Hints:
The protein is built from four helices and 16 strands. The protein has about 210 residues and is α+β, with helices and mostly antiparallel strands. The chain has a single domain, classed as 2,3-Dihydroxybiphenyl 1,2-Dioxygenase, domain 1.
Amino acid sequence: MKLFHYHHWTPMVEDMEKTYRVNGYAVAGRYGKYENRMQTFHPPLTWDDFRNKQIIFRIIEMRRGSVNVTFGYGKRNMFDHIGFLLNSNQQHKDDLIVSRANELGFSIDRNERRTFISVPDAFRIELQTNTDAIIDYSVNITRMDIEVRNTEVIGTLAYLLDLKREKNSLYGDGWEINLAKGVTTSLQSIYLNNGDKKAFTDQTNVTTYI
């Protein structure tokens, strides 16, 4: 199970895209509501082509290696979810997690491509089974730092996702999630390939070390 994705809502979607683009991420897609229907504004279109249109962007997708970052328009900055990719040999893992989510009484939204699980006092979890979501494994998420309002949820996440836990950290295959108590639930930082030589901070105050 690979940690590869996170999603935010923000009123600063154009600035957010630019921040990631100048730091080595490519725009994989833009999806927005315009003239009362969902439309695409993918590259080679640029913001100069549609900036003055009243588009409500639902998803802008950025990729760097296996890292998939999405964000959409919201009235304020808000962290929404993190995502895991399961390969074709890990269907049992998906079934186990969904079974445990049912046992815990969590809200589940499941279809043939992905599953979303809402974890109270934490954030949503996406289980992605579409392996086309990753075509390049040269860059990977190795660490996430997240603040949560109630650190008791760490044990719940470890059980739900069937992960090894050491104190306030959860460990997977080549990655870790460190959780700390905060005023609100928020993603604080991302590390790529154990990067520590360069960092940038996006419009939602997430710092990425590359």
